[in-house]
C-alpha cells in the first residue's frame, strides 16, 4: 500500500458545447424542473421539521430517460431557464468528462485489474483502517463511529450538506474500495467521488457539494449525474450506457480509481458502469462522500490496490479491436470471420 504523494495539479483546456445539444447538462447541481422544484422544496421543508436532517423528503431522482455517449441531454435545465424567461448560459465541457480526452481506451471495458482485486484476499484489518474515513478531516456534523472505524454517522442537521474524506490520498496505482450506502438514507443529494485536500467539506442547504469546484469529482447517485467544477462547466448523466428509465444504485457498489491511466469508474456486483471521470493524473485524490440525510450511516471498505504495470500485447490488441467496433462491440464481434476462441477472448468470455 502506498501513501499519498503530493503532485502539481495540471491545467486542462476546455471547449464550448451548446447547452441545447444532447451533449451535457447546463447548470449546477441544485436544479430541478419548476414543478419538481416546488415539490422538492415543500418536501424538504416538511422533512426538516419532522426529521431535522438533510433533504429527506425527496428520496429518489425525479429525472428519467436513458443516456448514451457522448453525454445525455438535460432538457430539464433548458426548460427551467426558458420558464424563467431567460436563455440557458453557455458552459464548457468539463475537462473531467470522459469525452474531453482521447484516451485510446474503451470506457465501457471492465478493467482486468478490477477483477484481479476482487479475486484477491481482502487486506488485513489494520490496512483497511489505514484507508478508512478520517475522523480529523470531516464536517462537524459528521462523526466516525467508535465501534466501527469504517462507518460514519451524520447528525440530523437541517439545510446542510456535509462531507468526509478518507485517510489516504492516491497519486499512483490502481485502487478499489466498496461503499455501502442504504438507498433509504440518501435524500435529495447523495454524492460519492474523490477530492483533493483543498475541496470544501460543508455547505449550507442541500447540494451536490462534491464536484462544484475543480478540486473534486462527484457522482450524485440519487440524480445519476456527474459533477466537476459544475459552477463553471456542464454536469453529465451517468451511467452512460444505462437503457432503463430509472437506474437505482444498489446499497453496495464499488469505486475504481486508476491513477496510472487517470480515471475513476464505478461498478456493482452485477455490472461495470463505465468510466465516469478522466484527466485525473497529476493529482493526489482522497475518497470522499457528501450526505444530507439525517442519521445516515455510510461505510467504506478498502479492497486493495495494484502497482503500475505494462499491459500485455494481447490485451492491447483486444482493446484496440473493441474500440474500433464502437459502442456495442459484442454485436460486431459475433460477425467476425475468426475462430470462436478469439471471439470469446474479445468478449472477455474465458
UniProtKB/TrEMBL annotation:
Comp. bias (Low complexity): 18-51
Ranges where the SOCS box domain occurs: 297-350
Domain B30.2/SPRY: 111-307
Polar residues bias spans: 60-69
Region (Disordered): 1-104
Family: Belongs to the SPSB family.
Name of the featured protein: SPRY domain-containing SOCS box protein 1
Lineage: Eukaryota, Metazoa, Ecdysozoa, Nematoda, Chromadorea
Gene transcribed to yield this protein: spsb-1
Amino acid at each position: 500500500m502506498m501513501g499519498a504523494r503530493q503532485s502539481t495539479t495540471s491545467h486542462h483546456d476546455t471547449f464550448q458545447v451548446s447547452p441545447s445539444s444532447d451533449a451535457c447538462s447546463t447548470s449546477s447541481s441544485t436544479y430541478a424542473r419548476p414543478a419538481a422544484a416546488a415539490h422538492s422544496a415543500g418536501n424538504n421543508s416538511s422533512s426538516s421539521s419532522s426529521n431535522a436532517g438533510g433533504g429527506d423528503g425527496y428520496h429518489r431522482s425525479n429525472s428519467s430517460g436513458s443516456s448514451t455517449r457522448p453525454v445525455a441531454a438535460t432538457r430539464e435545465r433548458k426548460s427551467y431557464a426558458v420558464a424563467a424567461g431567460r436563455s440557458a448560459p453557455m458552459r464548457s465541457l468539463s475537462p473531467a468528462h470522459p469525452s474531453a480526452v482521447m484516451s485510446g481506451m474503451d470506457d465501457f471495458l471492465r478493467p482486468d485489474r478490477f477483477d484481479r482485486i476482487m479475486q484477491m484476499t481482502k487486506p488485513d484489518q489494520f490496512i483497511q483502517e489505514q484507508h478508512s474515513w478520517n475522523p480529523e478531516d470531516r464536517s462537524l456534523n459528521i462523526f466516525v463511529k467508535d465501534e466501527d472505524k469504517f462507518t460514519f454517522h451524520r447528525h440530523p442537521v437541517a439545510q446542510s450538506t456535509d462531507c468526509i474524506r478518507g485517510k489516504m490520498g492516491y497519486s499512483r496505482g490502481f485502487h478499489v474500495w466498496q461503499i455501502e450506502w442504504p438507498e433509504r438514507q440518501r435524500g435529495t443529494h447523495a454524492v460519492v467521488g474523490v477530492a483533493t485536500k483543498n475541496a470544501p467539506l460543508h455547505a449550507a442547504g442541500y447540494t451536490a457539494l462534491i464536484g462544484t469546484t475543480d478540486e473534486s469529482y462527484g457522482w450524485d447517485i440519487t440524480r445519476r449525474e456527474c459533477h466537476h467544477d459544475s459552477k463553471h462547466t456542464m454536469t453529465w448523466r451517468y451511467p452512460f450506457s444505462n437503457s432503463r428509465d430509472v437506474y437505482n444504485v444498489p446499497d453496495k457498489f464499488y469505486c475504481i480509481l486508476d491513477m496510472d491511466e487517470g480515471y475513476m469508474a464505478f461498478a456493482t456486483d452485477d455490472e461495470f458502469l463505465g468510466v465516469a471521470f478522466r484527466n485525473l493524473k497529476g493529482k493526489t485524490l482522497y475518497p470522499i462522500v457528501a450526505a444530507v440525510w439525517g442519521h445516515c450511516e455510510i461505510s467504506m471498505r478498502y479492497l486493495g490496490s495494484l502497482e503500475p504495470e505494462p499491459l500485455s500485447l494481447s490485451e492491447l490488441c483486444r482493446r484496440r479491436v473493441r474500440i474500433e467496433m464502437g459502442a456495442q462491440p459484442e454485436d460486431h464481434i459475433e460477425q467476425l470471420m475468426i475462430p470462436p476462441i478469439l471471439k470469446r477472448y474479445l468478449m472477455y468470455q474465458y
